[in-house]
């Protein structure tokens, strides 16, 4: 059995070399999407539409040993079916066409090795803001729902108007069109279904650095101060041991400071945050938009909603609201095997209770006490003003002895 995966451009079969035509017409099975298969109406062998039930169809090929050609769009290894087939089947050879992104950058005469490539084809826009933050040049593969107008409207909610949008439609075909828009213009543009988006900013707003200043966060007044202070926040985030793709829970998010910083560390992850105070959750949403962090925010008192969230790699609790046992037990049950729970405690009573619960749950516990001070001017001199001490409790599952 041989499986050849051939990339097809917008121009259809006319863009294929004669050898590919020979392979297609001599194979026993021709597979692909409706559009690709429509280029070969005269094919007499078995035709397979690769839409739905893909796993079952592909697995059957390993046993029937038929010579197969799979038609894919552009470069099959760029967000395409090529990598999936290579992993599932033993004898796969890839023959790429020029991808739509290569053609798009060629049309605007721009280099593309320095661009960021993302796909929202069949994916949610949620979380894209932190992926884009600080990038100068980004290329996006779209779909009917996440079209250029929807992307532009999404970016405007995070005030990313420094970006200009190039919409490249039907690249390589007779209806090819390549145009530049402001985001405001693109938000009302009805693009053709087959398109690629390039975002470019001459002076992109810098991505926030680690340890955002407390003064940058909007906070509720007169109860200002309900925020995990920068120094404690940095230590807590380090204790969470976040990865690029971590799923993070922030329970009692308040101003959203921990969730926002986590979003810029785990840019390919998912961040969930809950807050019981309605005023605070609104400030958290405003802060997230200002810092270009797209977070799943919930208004409620934990453990409400937590059961519906995906299993976390890291959990931060700025407070427990008097439900510590229930909360920690639930978090421990849902936590991924190598995950961590970090709890900030301001009193020794909370410290003792948390340590006791984690011990009962079979978790290892490490505790740091952050007793910090900040400089403050006094006349022509400087003194230090102490901050309230905070216990940073880090819990993780005990390693099994070999």
Can you walk through the features of this model?
By secondary structure, the chain is α/β, with parallel strands linked by helices. The protein folds into 3 domains: 3-98, 3-Layer(aba) Sandwich (Cobalt-precorrin-4 Transmethylase, domain 1); 101-200, Tetrapyrrole methylase, C-terminal domain (Methyltransferase, Cobalt-precorrin-4 Transmethylase, Domain 2, 2-Layer Sandwich); 214-397, Vaccinia Virus protein VP39 (Rossmann fold, 3-Layer(aba) Sandwich). The chain is 29% helix and 26% strand. It contains 13 helices and 19 strands. The chain has helices at residues 18-26, 34-37, 54-64, 82-88, 100-107, 128-132, 148-157, 183-186, 230-240, 257-265, 278-290, 324-334, 348-360, and strands spanning 3-8, 29-32, 46-49, 68-73, 92-95, 116-119, 137-141, 164-169, 177-182, 195-200, 247-251, 270-275, 296-299, 314-317, 340-345, 363-370, 373-378, 381-386, 390-397. The strands form 4 sheets. A 7-stranded mixed sheet has the order 13-12-11-14-15-19-16, sandwiched between helices. Strands 3-2-4-1-5 form a 5-stranded parallel sheet, with helices on both faces. The chain has a 5-stranded mixed sheet with strand order 6-7-10-8-9. Strand 11 (247-251), helix 10 (257-265) and strand 12 form a beta-alpha-beta unit. Helix 12 packs across helix 13. The radius of gyration is 26 Å and the shape is elongated. The chain starts with a strand and ends in a 5-residue tail after the last strand. The model has no long low-confidence stretch (mean pLDDT 92).
């Amino acid at each position: 059995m041989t499986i050849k995966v051939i990339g097809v451009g917008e121009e259809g079969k006319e863009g294929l070399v004669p050898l590919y035509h020979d392979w297609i017409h001599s194979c026993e099975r021709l597979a692909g999407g409706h559009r690709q298969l429509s280029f070969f109406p005269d094919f007499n062998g078995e035709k397979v539409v690769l839409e739905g039930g893909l796993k079952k169809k592909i697995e059957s090929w390993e046993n029937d040993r038929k010579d197969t050609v799979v038609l894919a769009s552009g470069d099959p290894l760029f967000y395409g079916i090529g990598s999936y087939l290579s992993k599932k089947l033993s004898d796969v050879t890839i023959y790429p066409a020029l991808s739509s992104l290569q053609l798009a950058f060629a049309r605007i005469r721009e280099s593309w090795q320095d661009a960021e490539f993302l796909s929202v084809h069949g994916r949610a826009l949620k979380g894209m803001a932190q992926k884009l933050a600080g990038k100068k040049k980004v290329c996006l593969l779209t779909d009917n729902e996440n079209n250029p107008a929807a992307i532009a409207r999404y970016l405007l909610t995070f005030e990313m108007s420094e970006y200009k949008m190039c919409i490249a439609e039907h690249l390589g075909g007779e209806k090819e069109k390549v145009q530049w828009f402001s985001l405001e213009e693109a938000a009302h543009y009805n693009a053709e279904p087959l398109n690629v988006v390039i975002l470019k900013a001459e002076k992109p707003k810098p991505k926030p650095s680690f340890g955002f200043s407390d003064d940058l966060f909007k906070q509720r007044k007169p109860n200002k101060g309900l925020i995990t202070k920068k120094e404690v926040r940095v230590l807590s985030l380090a204790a969470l041991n976040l990865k690029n793709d971590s799923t993070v829970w922030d329970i009692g998010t308040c101003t959203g400071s921990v969730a926002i910083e986590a979003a810029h560390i785990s840019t390919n992850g998912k961040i969930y945050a809950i807050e019981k105070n309605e005023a605070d959750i609104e400030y958290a949403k405003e802060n997230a938009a200002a810092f270009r962090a797209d977070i799943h925010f919930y208004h409620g008192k934990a453990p409400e909603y937590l059961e519906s969230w995906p299993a976390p790699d890291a959990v931060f609790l700025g407070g427990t609201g008097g439900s510590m046992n229930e909360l920690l037990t639930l978090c421990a049950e849902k936590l991924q095997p190598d995950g961590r729970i970090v709890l900030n405690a301001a009193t020794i009573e909370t410290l003792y209770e948390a340590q006791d619960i984690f011990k009962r749950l079979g978790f290892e516990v490490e505790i740091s006490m952050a007793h910090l001070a900040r400089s403050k001017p006094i006349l022509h001199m400087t003194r230090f003003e102490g901050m309230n001490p905070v216990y940073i409790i880090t819990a993780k599952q005990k390693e099994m002895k070999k």
